[in-house]
Design a protein that fits this description.
The protein is an alpha/beta fold. It has ten helices and eleven strands. Strands 1-11-8-7-5-6 form a six-stranded parallel β-sheet. The protein is globular and about 50 Å long. Bound molecules: guanine.
């Protein structure tokens, strides 16, 4: 039976260190680290994520500035808010929750955030930095995935990591981070032919494709580390992209849903924000 990788417990221990860092910042500079969280409209999942992010700020002593904008917010007004937050000296990190309503240009909005304040690591400058191996802010979910894998004590270097999913938020940056840890990386996606032939070769399998229980037990290499990024809601219940009941019989380590990747995403967001705050003071 696989050992469960407890994302909640790992998050709690990292948050203790982050709380100490946030306190050190406040004592050094006379104000709390600040994170602006912008939500537009009423996407059901986003409501939950944003609530969790604001609660986590409170827990580690980061000040949150919450902006809840109406579904029909104009792009002009949203960009004006981003400009204001870019110039606000009490705001160290800015997060615009995705997805945005269809009439808003996501790329344009993300590009408007100053890269130094881009707590999500979604700005092209940070995405490009990740690609080139330059210092940059790393997207939260992929950064959390690397921490979860490392928490097992397993070495990443030389392993075959298969990432199922190619989103800008998870799949692509996760593949880049695994590559920078010297894994051999394969990226699969919803259009991959014979997905199982790839996943069965994975020493590390990251499922981030958004299809409920797509990965069955017979698609997993015995002894693999399985990271399930899926958050598929069905009849009020949350399901991963991995069939947990089957997978836990084959894998060596596996993340549960919920309680695996999700808490780490929030924790890495706080880490990014606190690091941005210190970096900005160093100039
Ligand atoms: N939507 C889903 N995941 C994320 C995330 O990590 N950050 C933001 N801003 N939006 C998201």
């Amino acid at each position: 039976m696989a050992e469960i990788i407890d994302g909640k417990a790992l998050s709690a221990s990292i948050k203790e260190d982050l709380a100490a860092e946030a306190k050190r910042y406040e004592e050094s500079y006379g104000r709390k680290v600040g994170l602006a969280v912008v939500k537009v409209g009423h996407d059901g999942a986003s409501e939950v994520y944003v609530r969790n992010k604001i609660a986590a700020c409170e827990k580690v002593g980061v000040r949150s500035f919450a902006y809840e904008l109406p579904e029909d917010e104009s792009e002009e007004d949203l960009l004006a808010l981003v400009d204001k937050l870019n110039d606000d000296e009490e705001v160290d990190g800015i997060l615009v929750q995705l997805p945005l309503p269809a009439h808003l240009n996501e790329k344009k909005v993300l590009a408007r955030i100053r890269p130094e304040k881009d707590a999500d690591g979604f700005h092209v400058v940070n995405a490009g930095g990740l690609m080139l191996g330059l210092p940059c802010t790393k997207p939260c979910t992929p950064a959390g995935i690397i921490e979860l894998i490392k928490s097992t004590g397993a070495k990443i270097a030389g392993k075959h990591a298969v990432v199922v999913g190619r989103s800008n938020i998870v799949g692509k940056p996760c593949a880049m981070l695994l590559l920078s840890e010297n894994a051999t990386v394969t990226i699969c996606h919803s259009r991959t032919v014979d997905l199982a032939s790839y996943t069965r070769q994975a020493d590390i399998l990251v499922a981030a494709v958004g299809i409920k229980q797509l990965i069955k037990g017979d698609m997993i290499k015995p002894g693999a580390i399985v990271i399930d990024v899926g958050m598929n809601r069905d009849n009020g219940k949350l399901y991963g992209d991995v069939d947990f009941g089957e997978a836990e019989k084959v894998a060596s380590y596996i993340t549960p849903v919920p309680g695996g990747v999700g808490p780490m995403t929030v924790t890495m967001l706080l880490k990014n924000t606190i690091e941005s705050a210190f970096r900005c003071r160093k100039g």
